[in-house]
Amino acid sequence: MSWIQAILEVNSEKTSEIEELLLAIGAQAVTMRDAAEQPIYEPALGTTPLWDKVNLIALFDAEQPLSEQMAQLAQLYQNEYQQDFPSYKLELVEDKDWVREWMDTFKPMKFGERLWICPSWLEPEDSKAVNLKLDPGLAFGTGTHATTALCLRWLDQFELTDKRVVDFGCGSGILGIAALLLGAKHMVGIDIDPQAILASNENAEHNNINKDDIELYLPENAPDTQVEVVLANILAGPLVELKDPILSYLLPKGHLALSGILASQAQEVVDAYESECDILGVDEEDGWVRITAQKKA
After folding, report:
1. Which of 45, 173, 194, 251 has a 20 to 30 Å separation from 218 between CA atoms?
2. What does each C-alpha distance from 230 to 119, 235, 259 come to in angstroms?
C-alpha cells in the first residue's frame, strides 16, 4: 500500500487543533517532531512540553485526493479563524516493509570488554560474551543513548560478583539485568511507571534471569534494603531532589553510578552528593555525564 504524507510547520499552541483537522479528513496517523532544533532535555514531572515550532507529519492513503482536500481545508480554516493555514508540503512515501525497515536499524552493540546488547531477532556476534537480549519497547533504555551507554561501560569494568544492586528508575531494566549477567547476585528495580515494571520483568524473563534474583517495585512498595551498588540513570533534577532516598539504599562504602545528567548540570549533582560520598569520577559522552561515587563509611 502506498502513502502520502503531509508535512506542516505549526506553532505549538495550534498543534492540537490542526492535528484534529488532519484526522478529520482521513489521516491514518499524525506524528510530531522538532521544527526549530530546540531540544527539551528535562521537562517538569507530569508535563509534556512541545517545541515552539512543531512539524506535524500526517500519513494518508495515496488513493485519497489529498491535494484537493488540503486546499479545501486551508480555505475553511482561513474562513473560520481569519488567519492563514500553516504552510505544508505533500510527499509520496515509498512502499516498504516498515517492520523490517525498523528492525534493520538496530544492531548488536558492545559496551566495554564483555557486554553486548543484542536485539532478540539477531544472533549475538560473540556467543561467549555476556549477551543481554533487549528489544526496543515502551520503557526508556536500550543502550543507544549516551546516558545508558556510560552506565553499561561502568558496569562492564566494575567487579560485581556476588554484589546486590538497586536500579533506581529501572526503565527497561537494562542496567539491573546487565549487572546480574555480569555477576551480581540480586537486583531490586524501582520505577514510578507501571509500564517500566512490566518491561523490566519481560526483559528479565527473555534473559533467563532467575525469578529469585530480581525484585521490581513501584516506589511506594519498595522494601527497606541496603546494597553494595546503586544505579540511578534518571535526570539531574530528580537525582538532586531524591538524593536521600537514593543514598538510603546504599551501604557505607557502597558504590554509586548516577547518569541522565547534562554536562552543564554535573557540578550541581556533585555538590548534592559530595557531603556523603567520595566522588570517584565524572565521565562525559555527547554532552551527557555519568558520576561515580563511593558512600562514606
Report:
1. 251
2. 26, 15, 11
Q: Could you say which DSSP state residue 126 is in?
A: -
Cross-strand bridge partners of residue 292: 257, 281
Set of cell numbers at residue 9: 510547520
Residue 100 within any structural domain of the chain: no
Please give the model's pTM, rounded to 2 decimal places. 0.73
Distance CA 191, CA 209 (A): 19
Rounded-to-integer distance, Cα 265 and Cα 267, Å: 6
Pairing mode, strands 214-217 and 227-233: unpaired
Give the domain range for residue 121: 106-295
Question: How far is the C-alpha of 89 from the C-alpha of 6, rounded, in Å?
Answer: 6
* Domain membership flag for residue 85: yes
Give the pLDDT band of residue 139 (cuts 50, 70, 90): very low
245: nearest Cα among 147, 183, 168 = 168
